Structure formats: structure tokens, C-alpha cells
Amino acid sequence: MTHPTLRRLLKSMKALAAPAAVLGAVGALALADDGAQAQVAAKIESQTRPNFGLLLQPPVQARPRGHRRWSYGTHRGHGYAPPPPRPTLEEVVLVDCGGNPGTGAVEAAVHRVRPGGTLIIRARGGPCVGWLNVDKPMTILGDGQGFDPRDWNRNPPPTLQAPDGLPCLTIAPGVRVEIRDVVFASPNAGDAACVVNYGGQAILNRVGFRHAGDEAAIYSDGGLVDLRNAVIEADTVTAAIVGDGATLTAYETTILRALSGVDLTPGPGEPSLIQNVTMRGTEAPNNFGPRAIGLIVRAQRDYGRVEVTNTLISDYAEGVAVEGASVLVRDTRITRVDKGAVLYNGELTLDRSRVRADTVGVAAAAGRAVVTNNVFARVRQVYYEEARAVVDAEENVVYSRALCRAQFRPRYRDRYEPYFGAGGPGWRCAYDSYPQDWWRQEDGYFGYGYEDDGGYYLDGYDRYQQGYGWYDRDGRYIRDDRYHGDRRWSGGGWRR
């Protein structure tokens, strides 16, 4: 191949190489676009595909984060203040109100006590004024020398006073609260009771109440009220203690000034026990307004039971009233009442008790009354029994000048001899004087002077028993010493 020919060949190859290079560059660009698209698709797939290994075995350490120069908790704008820390519950909380009512210190102290803890109320500068709303079990103590019921006449200062129109203490359902050495005061209670128990357990020992309002000093809607060594002075038109479906245990308790003593509707559980209790009313008449009753026992669908022992009930229109429950009254003194015990319905057992009433000892409208081994004084009628009632009476003694007085029958012309009746069904008369030891345990306990309800005295009866004289039909003694013994009935008529 000659040199010109080679030159022409090289020129032709250069001409063909340029388009080939262009085509190669285009092909390379096309291949590069396909690879980029494949990498993007693979990246998206790797991000969207779930990592099952990570789900089955999560990491044990958190991913470290970089430090922030500020946090959301400390930068919330101007004027922001963090919330106060929650109070720590304490085993024993002492509150000293210092005579500053309305500060809320005693209410706040209740919230600080842990369940089962103790709240101590110190009232050196005056009573703590507040409403204790207790929703957890606790013990409430009064600070100081303690409360002695025997010092009630010395007017001990109150420990806790209720705000006007509000209660002193409320107890939530199922909560047990023990209270000792506390004097409650609710001088302007209005329609509020001082202690309100909503189905909890109120255990009160060595406590006092001064209550003035339209409701009871203690009201319990179910639950238990246990009173020991307590004094309740309630100036109210209702009962001092009202229990609705509740169980009441009262021991060594004194109830004063209330129109009625205890108004109880016993619950279906354990029987309510009233022992060594003194109830004294206001001698309110029974011809208008609510009835003045020492102890009134009502009934719900569940037939409850109340047992009363060694109790003194005085100055009421009715001593005990039973309305559809079972009540046992034993070794109890009922005095200065119009009616001793009234059975409207249900069951009443009166045993080994003393009743001093102006009209009736036991009145039964319906139900069954068992009256045994009792002493009745001053009554005009021992029992009153209607058609739907049954009264079983045995071995009762009556001191009454209205019932146990002499009657006179004719013996000779205008001469009469006295005789004394044997009594009535289930009772007999006692013609000696009423024992003064009994009087000191009844009316004499309140300072009343001795009055002999028995001791029927017949003028000239001593001389008559010696065989001299007789009586006229009006019971006047006619003295005549001329005839002795039976001769006075056979001769020497009464010369007019």
C-alpha cells in the first residue's frame, strides 16, 4: 500500500471515529442514567422494607442524642412557675391552729396524714375551726391533758369547731376513724350534724359535743358508731343521735338537752348495745311539735335488734318507743315520763327495771310485750293493751296511790271496813314507802327531793287494827272506844 493510499485510509477512519465517539458517549450516558435510577430505587426499597431483625431483637441502648443548649421544661415563656411538689404523706401530723380560724390548716393536715396515720389537734390559742372530711383510715387525737367526762360542768374548751352551717367531721364509706380526747363544738350548725358517718366506722372515746342546730349531733347513715365515755349536749329539736340502718354501741355516755335522746333504725348486722347511758330531756310537753322520746327504735325491711341495760332515761314524754323492731330493756330506770314504754309494733321485753310514769307504765298498740319483774311507781294504769297487741306480765310490783288504795265495804249499818285489793293481772301492790335508795338512783340523781309515791296512809288505820272504831263510806275514820273487836259490828250503831 502506497503512502497516499495509507493517508486516505487514515482520514476515512478519523471520519468514522467521531460519530462512534459520539455514540459511545451517548451510550455511556444512557448506561449511567440506568445505574442511578437503580441505586435510587434500591435506597428507597431499603428504607421502606421492614427490618425484621430489629423488630425481633431491639437494641438494649438508646441512641445517643446531642446536647441541647435549652430544654422545653425550663423555657416556657415569661411568668411561668413550675407546679408545687406533691405533699409527702406523714405518719403523725401535729396541727396548732393558734386561734386563727379560717386558715385551712386543719383541713390541710388531714390530707398530709397517710392512711392509718395520726392527726394531733392542738388548740392552745382557741379551737381549730374547720371541716374534717376524712376519706382514709386514721386516728384523731386532742393534744393536752385529755378529756374527762366528769369535768363537763367545768366547761372544757373546744378542740375543733365547725364553720357555720357545716359539719365538724364527715367519714367516707368503709373508712375507720378513731377519735380520742376531742371536744367538738358546732354552735351554729343549722341543717348540718356535727359528725356525719356515711357507712364508715366512727370510734369515739373520751369526747364531748356542744351542738346547736336543727339536726342531730351525730348522724350515721349505715356503718358503726361506737361511743365510750362521751358527753353530748345537743340543743336541737330532734334526737341527739340518729342512726339510719346503723349499728350503735354506747357505753358510759351522757345525753343532755336534746328533745329526744336516741333515734335508731338498727341495721341487719350485730345488735345495737346501749349500756350505762344517761339520757335527760327537757320536759317538753307532748301536745304539739315532735314527740319527746328518750329512745325510739324504728325498723326497716331487715328486722334489727337493740339491747338496753343499766340505763337512766328521764324527762321525756315517752321513755322508750318501739316501732317495728326487737328491743330488750333490762336493769334500766325510766323516770319523770308520761308513759314508760310504748309498743307501736314489734317486740318489747321489759325486765328487772323501774318505771315512774304519770299515766301508763307500758302501752301496747300492736305487737308483743313481755313485762316481768319490774317496779312501777306513780302510774294510774300499769298496762294498756289494744286489740292487736299482747302483753305477757308476771311478778311486777306497783307503788301507786291511785291504784293501791283502800276500798270500803259495809259491815253493819253505816259502818264500813277497809280492804286492800290484791292488784291486777301480773302485778301486785306494795303499801310501804317507796325506797329512798331507789329514789337516789332516779330523780335524786338530778337533785330532786324525795317524794313517796307509795306509802299509802289510811287515817286511823293503826287504831282500827287494834280493834277500835270503823270507817264511813267516804273513808273517814270514826273513833269509838266503847266497842272492841267484832262487837263494833254487832251493836251500838252510829248515832247521828
Automatic annotation (TrEMBL):
It comes from Brevundimonas balnearis. Keywords: Signal. This is Right handed beta helix domain-containing protein. Gene3D superfamilies: 2.160.20.20. Residues 1-17 form the signal peptide.
